[in-house]
């Protein structure tokens, strides 16, 4: 989706009553205007305490305040289109008529709201004449089947053809284009027709959507038409586009799960379908974990990991691995300390500092308890150790906090994952139980969860380039983890032994 250029977003004003549940009236109009690429503005005629089940009360502010609202908009903003919905009273209708006559907005659509879907009246009976007078000042009127009859002072049309005929006569009488709406006629196909005074009829058909959620369809359609006319400059393409949108919005309506009566349509369903999915820390975590699925599977099947799991790992190979781990931890601790230095918050600074302390303490512990004081072992860093450490030191040198902490994450995450699984299958006399317990430890899990939280929260709010750089650092560290586990040679020839 490209950003709209200057002057390409029509400024559309709705003059309507309210619906605090957001399905009809002014709230629905604003969503509809936005869904069609318009800038929505709203002047309130009446406050309606209603929900999807019915109307509980109507509060009409003094009509003088309606005028103040209308003037506040027109004194400041160039209006491209107006939609008029619920007027409620004679005085409100007369006031809006006077304002329209004065301001002469380029396009005016009148939805002559009289009765809600629930059956509650939204227009005082004596205001019907005032609505008829307003007709002379509008470009399109969108009555439903009963409203068409009331405006003409005739019985409700029994058939679609009768409704079309009523629409034609209303257009001749008022000089206004009439949208005859077929929502109230039975059948699998729903028809709407634009009828003008010359007798031209343009019918747009669509499937009837099987849903109870039709609250506010008339409001939403008329607001869509006002906005789309500002885009297209004509009613027929505006209606075709609005109808296709309304069908999609009705199809998605049940998913909203709003209210227990006639729910609202899903005004933004089409945008939500095509918009990029929202990035959340949880989604980043799931995607990144999935991203290294192959590397994790390769790690799990390494001979070293299998032998460690069943306890058959030769002591020499384990010692060699531990020595590499100790060498790695020295630099890993330095890089964690670097992350602490770059951290944007005291909390994160403390976390990385404490992790740095944990890593170097683990190195000291490895020496003391596993490698033995004065024990000889091959202490030169293996190529895999050098490569992993160089990758992390490179991230630290480049100075970006995001990629750096993303690169630090696999050492937490892959270890805790492996440690927990090894711990779950640990037999009673496993020779490396104590070492495995370090990584399956709940405290290490808690640190890992915090590291995941920090990194994924950062990635979720980062721009695409930064997020990709973070993912790349994470991916490469995961590969280094795998290679680190692949490095020990299980049946080792007598190694060259030096003292650390
Ligand atoms: N179930 C449905 N499936 C498809 N389109 C529908 C359905 N119900 C209504 N519509 C369409 O919604 C629009 C409004 O129709 P309707 O004739 O119900 O007007 P309304 O009574 O003014 O609406 P409201 O429910 O807001 O009072 C029309 O375009 C109509 O064709
Ligand atoms: C403020 C206001 N305006 C219009 C309607 C009609 O919508 P519906 O007929 O779908 O209830 C309404 N219920 N409330």
Automatic annotation (TrEMBL):
Start and end residues of each Pyridoxamine kinase/Phosphomethylpyrimidine kinase domain: 19-265
Transferase listed as a keyword: yes
Keywords: Kinase, Thiamine biosynthesis, Transferase
GO function terms (MF aspect): kinase activity
Domain annotation Thiaminase-2/PQQC: ranges: 303-486
Classification via InterPro entries: Haem_Oase-like_multi-hlx, HMP/HMP-P_kinase_dom, PM/HMP-P_kinase-1, Ribokinase-like, Thiaminase-2/PQQC
Domain of life: Bacteria
Reaction(s) the record says it catalyses: 4-amino-2-methyl-5-(phosphooxymethyl)pyrimidine + ATP = 4-amino-2-methyl-5-(diphosphooxymethyl)pyrimidine + ADP; 4-amino-5-hydroxymethyl-2-methylpyrimidine + ATP = 4-amino-2-methyl-5-(phosphooxymethyl)pyrimidine + ADP + H(+)
Pathway membership: Cofactor biosynthesis; thiamine diphosphate biosynthesis; 4-amino-2-methyl-5-diphosphomethylpyrimidine from 5-amino-1-(5-phospho-D-ribosyl)imidazole: step 3/3
Pfam families: Phos_pyr_kin (PF08543), TENA_THI-4 (PF03070)
NCBIfam families cross-referenced by the UniProt entry: HMP-P_kinase, PRK14713.1
Record function comment: Catalyzes the phosphorylation of hydroxymethylpyrimidine phosphate (HMP-P) to HMP-PP, and of HMP to HMP-P.
Entry protein name: Bifunctional hydroxymethylpyrimidine kinase/phosphomethylpyrimidine kinase
Organism per entry: Flavimobilis rhizosphaerae
Lineage, broadest ranks: Bacteria, Bacillati, Actinomycetota, Actinomycetes, Micrococcales
């Amino acid at each position: 989706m490209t950003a709209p250029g200057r002057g390409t977003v029509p400024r559309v004003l709705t003059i309507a009553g309210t619906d605090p549940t957001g399905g009809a009236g002014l709230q629905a109009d604003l969503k509809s205007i936005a869904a069609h690429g318009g800038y929505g503005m709203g002047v309130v005629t009446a406050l309606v305490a209603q929900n999807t089940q019915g109307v509980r009360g109507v509060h009409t502010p003094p009509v003088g305040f309606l005028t103040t609202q209308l003037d506040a908009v027109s004194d400041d903003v160039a209006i491209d289109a107006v939609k008029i919905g619920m007027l409620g009273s004679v005085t409100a209708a007369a006031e809006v008529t006077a304002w329209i006559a004065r301001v002469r907005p380029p396009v005016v659509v009148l939805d002559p709201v009289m009765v809600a879907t629930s059956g509650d009246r939204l227009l005082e009976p004596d205001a019907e004449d005032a609505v008829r007078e307003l007709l002379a000042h509008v470009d399109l009127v969108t009555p439903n089947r009963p409203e068409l009859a009331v405006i003409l002072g005739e019985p409700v049309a029994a058939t679609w053809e009768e409704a079309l005929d009523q629409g034609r006569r209303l257009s001749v009488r008022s000089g206004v284009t009439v949208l005859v709406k077929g929502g109230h006629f039975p059948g699998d196909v729903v028809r709407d027709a634009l009828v003008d005074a010359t007798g031209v009829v343009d019918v747009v058909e669509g499937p009837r959507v099987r849903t109870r959620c039709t609250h506010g369809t008339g409001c939403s359609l008329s607001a869509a038409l006002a906005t789309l006319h500002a885009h297209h400059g004509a009613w027929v393409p505006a209606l075709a586009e609005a109808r296709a949108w309304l069908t999609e919005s009705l199809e998605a309506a049940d998913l909203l799960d709003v209210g227990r009566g006639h729910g609202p349509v899903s005004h933004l369903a089409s945008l939500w379908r095509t918009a990029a999915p929202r990035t959340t820390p949880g989604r980043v975590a799931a995607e990144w974990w999935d991203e290294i699925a192959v590397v994790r599977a390769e790690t799990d099947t390494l001979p070293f990991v299998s032998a460690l799991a069943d306890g058959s790992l030769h002591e020499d190979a384990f010692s060699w691995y531990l020595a590499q781990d100790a060498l790695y931890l020295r630099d890993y601790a330095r890089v964690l300390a670097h992350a602490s230095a770059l951290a944007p918050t005291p909390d994160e600074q403390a976390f990385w500092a404490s992790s740095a302390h944990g890593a170097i303490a683990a190195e000291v512990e490895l020496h003391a308890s596993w490698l033995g004081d004065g024990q000889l072992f091959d202490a030169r860093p293996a190529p895999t150790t050098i490569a992993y450490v160089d990758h992390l030191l490179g991230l630290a040198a480049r100075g970006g906090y995001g990629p750096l902490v993303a690169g630090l994450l696999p050492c937490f995450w892959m270890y805790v994952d492996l440690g927990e699984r090894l711990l779950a299958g640990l037999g009673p006399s496993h020779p490396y139980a104590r070492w495995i317990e370090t990584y399956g430890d709940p405290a290490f899990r808690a640190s890992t969860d915090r590291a995941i939280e920090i990194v994924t929260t950062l990635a979720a709010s980062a721009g695409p380039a930064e997020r990709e750089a973070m993912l790349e650092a994470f991916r490469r560290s995961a590969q280094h983890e795998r290679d680190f586990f692949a490095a020990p040679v299980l049946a080792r020839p007598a190694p060259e032994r030096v003292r650390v």
